Amino acid sequence: MATSQTEDQLVQSERLTLSGMHCAACVQLIEFRLRQLPGIELFRINTATHKADVIWKAGENNLKNIIAAIIHLGYGALPSSQSPDEFEKKENKLALWRLFIAGFAMMQIMMYAFPAYLVPVPQVDGDLTPDLDKLLKIASMLITVPVIGFSALPFFRAAWRDMRNRHIGMDVPVSLGILLTFFASVWATFAGGVVYYDSVIMFVFLLLAARLIESKVQKKTSVALRVLTQLVPVSAQKLKNYPASRDVESLDATLLQIGDFVLVAPGEHIPADGVVLEGRSECDESLMTGESVPVLKQVGDQVIAGAVNASGTLIVKTEKVGMETHLSSLISMMEVAATEKPPIVLLADKHASRFLSLILVVAVVTGIVWFYIAPARALWIAISVIVVTCPCALSLATPGVMSAAIGLLAKNGALIKNGKAIQSMAQATHFVFDKTGTLTVGKLSLIEQKASRHVLAAETIAFLLASGSTHPASKAIADALAMQYQSSLIMGVDAMHEVAGGGIEARIDGNLYRLGSVSFAAELSQQTIIVPAEMASQTVSVLADNAGVILLFGLSDALRDDAVATVSKLQLQHKHVMLLSGDREEVVHKVARKCGIVDARAGLSPADKFDVVQSLQKQGAIVVVVGDGMNDGPALSLANVAVAMGQGAPISQTRSDVLLMSNRLSDLDFGFTVANKAFRLIRENLIWAIAYNMFAIPAATLGWLEPWHAALGMSLSSVIVVLNALRLYLLPQPSYVVTDQLA
Fold it and tell me: What is the C-alpha separation between 271 and 317, in angstroms, rounded?
């Protein structure tokens, strides 16, 4: 359980594991009722994993009351820290027994129903005498009783729960259909008439089988979330008095504090985010980044929680622990994304309960009309209307498709932070790329350095400024000047701040300096800066003061291995690809030519990029923006889908819908393929569910369907849309070809 202090009082949060949910109406009921409890600030259910995130004010409520409220609604709930394995095993075993009883009864009852099918209207001189007919009906009734009293019990409990809460869920019409058919058959057994015991048992069997299949599919589609959850380290080896001694204390990983020292032996999971103080090893980070090759870690390198230490022993100083770790953030973002549905699906989920209520009204009206047409058929036709409808198919497969898509992308290094991005990516018309760190590796190297005039300790000043920025150009300059930095010079640095799209500015020993783009530096000196011809194709950073240019730095980058292929694939799919950069025109157009991008624009500020994206959207474009820097923040916040590189600046990551943890552009292309397929499957499911109901409901009201036809159709409708979601796994996995292309 996590706690945090707000302005007025303590706020607590917890993740719960829920059970007993079968459709969108169940989720609606729980969320609606729990959000009405006092002190509840957030209650959100992940329909793929059956987890719920809850945040409440400690002074107004507590976890015990929240769990009790869920149980009172008729569902199960327990903190996610408590393993639900035993409960799940018990529930699965009971579900199999219910299915077995219904299946066994279904086989037996067909022997008694078969003679009636052969001779539907018994004659005195026929093979099926009235006495024998009645005996077979009584035998069928006795066989049906265990199915009603045991196999169908979950439906009755859920229906009673819904009725008690004045809510219409899927189990209400299901239970009505079962009970009405059974008791009407009991009446016909003794009063004379047609019985449908076989239809009752078949309906229960098919529905139980469908829900069992749905449960299995849900577990399969949420496997990526489950694997990541299992990666959370459960224990840690803490060094108690490091570096004075190497005494080790074994403790729960959640008890680690920032600044603790931990020993990570070969084969163990790293328990927290931190920095390596001692040792050298390779770490497997594939499940977090999608990178299959182990990453070498040595003194000074960052490590992330959940990664597996493959070879040597490491001593790590923790920097982020518990729910603050990189891994915990990934899990949280993925689970949030899985709960968010594309707009096309929200309408179906929103009206699921209303649809069920409408069907009950239609069934009653149909029964009344048929009572005047053919009284003997009126009840059975009304029951067929109730049974044949399948609103759960409208929303059943959507969580499965979403979880499968999110899991597939996570496996390949693309983290979906916003589930709505799936639909937007599938409908995207324009892809806007940044240059540095996006189409290029972002690992600039200093190629050339020119001095415009002599300033004492100019390299030291440039180093101090560059060290204060996370921009790739600043990092390259800082790395190159590290050896020239005169640490013996004590210089006062004040008012250092970074200007998005420009560079970094600070007052050093009383003088104002800027390090950044040509235009940014020129603003300070109010002088025109001319870049030497030999540096025209390079990315140029300028160190300047009020008097003018001091140093010019020529930097070069390399194209990502997959940049050309990714752009080409997008263009082949008739997507408009653009390159927007704050760099100089010569550099930008050189990269654009290599990538085959026709629409490339240089010298843009963050506001300019924002305006371009806004203009495209006003023309009806659905825009995907891919960037990694601070200057991409405004454009990313406006984009229909914001894609940030995993190595990028934190501001670009926080504003993104998709995070490319692998830093591979090919994973963006794969993500586009997955989004297209997922959105197509969702549309297929919705079209099928709507078409089925548009045919089945009129057919039932016209008396074309018997109750057993309705039972079969309703069950198969759910199974079809659920199995259709699994087709997403048939997509071929991407392969990676490494090339070397210099920008």
Answer: 11
